[in-house]
Amino acid sequence: MVDRTIELVTRQKLIRYITFEGEVSTSDTITLNDFSLISNAALFKLSDGSSVTYTKATNVITVTTTSLTDEKIFGVAIGVPA
Q1: Looking at the chain, which runs of residues are DSSP E strands?
Q2: Which pTM does this prediction carry?
Q3: Which of 20, 21, 54, 65 is most open to solvent, judged by the fewest CB atoms within 10 Å of its CB?
Q4: Mean of the per-residue pLDDT values for the chain?
């Protein structure tokens, strides 16, 4: 095992995370006003813990899992604060 030296390349963005809960259906959008840009997120059904698929653009998440109707979810997102 070797201890490697790394070079810090970028330090200009402060990253923050939030957790959230709610009810969603397929094609619903979730706007996270705390962020100007969502870097990544994870959404899970509270009923069975399975993942909920989504797309993201700036600070908006769009639910893409098919056949969801008023499903309770838990989510976590990481991104650049607004």
Answers
A1: 16-24, 29-31, 35-45, 51-52, 54-57, 60-63, 71-81
A2: 0.81
A3: 21
A4: 85
What is the reported pLDDT for 54? 97
Helix, strand, coil tally for the chain in percent (to 5): 0, 55, 45
- Kindly report, residue by residue over 5-24, the tens digit of the pLDDT: 545 444 445 778 888 998 99
Residue identified by tokens 């706007």 is: 31
Q: How far is CA 66 from CA 28, 34, 42, 49, 76, in A?
A: 11, 27, 16, 16, 20
N-terminal to C-terminal alpha carbon distance within the chain:
41
Cα-based angle 54, 56, 57 (whole degrees, multiple of 5): 155
State residue 23 phi and psi, 5-degree precision.
Answer: -115, 135
Taking a C-beta distance cutoff of 8 angstroms, is the pair 62, 31 a contact? no
